[in-house]
């Protein structure tokens, strides 16, 4: 089919591209009730995952050193409630709001099936997916600070290849108002209730500028359909941004001429606490972080060894990784594997440890990206424990 230029086009153009049937308004789609089902559907065995009930983190000790991407079966899961089972055959993405070229209310939203979306040019892109709170537990264990939220170590991250369509192609085909500024993405999972407050369905607004830049509506990961836990049949992906921006089980997009808000950009996923202003902005681009492909407290034999790890940034490429094998006294450059890097995925690196002496050691890795952003030695304290980007002190024992 003819590729659609990423311009703001009218509603009639959409009918030609997507087929008249797709544009019939539908009643609100309702997610099936899932009260008795488990929080996560895929297996999360203890040799691969650390289990946090609704969430599960990938163990860095289980990462396949030879593989670049994270297999979907190994990717961390972060659910506010539980994984819903959505029927792809009746699934429809609803589009409404006064930011469409032809404004529409929620009750008469446009409705796009997966088949409609698959008629648009297919787009593939490798990117890091990472939770805003990745590394949160180190606020406590490394900085003696108390924070709320899931006590992830560094496994709430992965690099995957997305398959889908560019959101800008979808918007061009349905027609975007020239003064649209904000898009609210809402999931089909159960409403999120916490501390007696019902926050409604998981949803978060993002700027139209990001939508027209690199946002993806993805139905696939690493060449497979999405698993239910990762957003089947369709999720939003905002590459480089905090994980919460990539809404799973995408039910609707509200396109607006005014700034939209939700608890996920006003209450959660903002910096809060004594060091932050009351109007700190919603978090967007992920910081720079690094991890060793080792368990915390790993035992290593007392002979020369090549250690490996990965570093990533939401803003650009990793240009340098410095490592210390002696708790931060001396530093040396790690060897970056630049060849295996795909698109906006992470960078693999290695370092040779020629003479490991028996006893306890702390390994440190500190990366810098091509925007000159580097990892601090102390992460900025915030009460919800976001953006722990400081260099992590990784204990190992040589035996
Ligand atoms: N609908 C919906 N989308 C969501 C979430 C959710 O709970 N519901 N969690 C968000 C958060 S906080 C993260 S970090 C990522 C995690 O994606 P994954 O579970 O596929 O790894 O999904 C985001 N999208
Ligand atoms: Mo997250």
UniProtKB/TrEMBL annotation:
The keyword Ribonucleoprotein is annotated on this UniProt entry: no
Domain Moybdenum cofactor oxidoreductase dimerisation: 302-387
Cofactors: Mo-molybdopterin
Domain Oxidoreductase molybdopterin-binding: 80-264
Matching InterPro entries: Ig_E-set, MoCF_OxRdtse_dimer, Mopterin_OxRdtase_euk, OxRdtase_Mopterin-bd_dom, OxRdtase_Mopterin-bd_sf, TAT_signal
UniProt keyword list: Metal-binding, Molybdenum, Oxidoreductase, Signal
Signal peptide: 1-30
Superkingdom in the source lineage: Bacteria
Pfam assignment, any one: Mo-co_dimer
Classification via CDD domains: SO_family_Moco_dimer (cd02110)
Record protein name field: Sulfite oxidase
Species, as recorded: Nocardioides zeicaulis
């Amino acid at each position: 089919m003819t590729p659609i230029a990423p311009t703001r086009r009218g509603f009639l153009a959409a009918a030609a591209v997507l087929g008249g049937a797709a544009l019939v308004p539908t009643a609100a789609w309702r997610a099936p009730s899932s009260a008795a089902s488990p929080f996560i559907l895929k297996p999360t065995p203890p040799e691969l995952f650390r289990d946090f009930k609704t969430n599960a983190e990938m163990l860095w000790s289980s990462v396949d050193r030879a593989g670049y991407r994270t297999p979907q079966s190994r990717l961390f899961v972060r659910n506010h409630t539980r994984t819903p089972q959505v029927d792809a055959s009746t699934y429809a993405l609803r589009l409404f709001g006064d930011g469409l070229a032809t404004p529409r209310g929620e009750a008469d939203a446009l409705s796009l099936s997966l088949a409609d979306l698959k008629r648009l040019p297919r787009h593939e892109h490798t990117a890091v997916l990472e939770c805003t709170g990745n590394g949160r537990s180190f606020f406590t264990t490394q900085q003696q600070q108390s924070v709320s939220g899931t006590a992830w170590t560094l496994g709430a991250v992965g690099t995957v290849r997305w398959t889908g369509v560019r959101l800008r192609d979808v918007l061009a085909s349905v027609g975007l108002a020239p003064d649209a500024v904000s898009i609210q993405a809402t999931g089909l999972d159960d409403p999120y209730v916490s501390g007696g407050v019902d926050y409604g369905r998981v949803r978060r607004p993002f700027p139209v500028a990001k939508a027209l830049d690199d946002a993806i509506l993805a139905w696939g990961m690493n060449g497979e359909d999405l698993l239910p836990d990762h957003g089947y049949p369709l999720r939003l992906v905002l590459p480089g941004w905090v994980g919460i921006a990539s809404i799973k089980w995408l039910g609707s997009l509200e396109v607006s001429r005014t700034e939209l808000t939700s608890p996920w950009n006003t209450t959660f996923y903002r910096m809060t606490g004594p060091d932050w202003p009351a109007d700190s902005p919603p978090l967007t681009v992920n910081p720079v972080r690094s991890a060793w492909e080792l368990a915390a407290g790993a035992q290593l034999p007392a002979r020369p060894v090549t250690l490996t790890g990965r570093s990533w940034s939401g803003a650009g490429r990793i240009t340098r990784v410095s490592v210390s094998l002696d708790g931060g006294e001396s530093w040396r450059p790690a060897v970056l594997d630049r060849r295996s890097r795909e698109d906006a995925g992470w960078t693999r690196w290695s370092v040779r440890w020629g003479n490991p002496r028996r006893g306890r050691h702390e390994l440190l890795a500190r990366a810098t990206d091509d925007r000159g952003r580097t990892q601090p030695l102390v992460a900025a304290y915030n009460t919800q424990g976001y953006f722990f980007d400081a260099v992590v002190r990784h204990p190992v024992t040589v035996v």
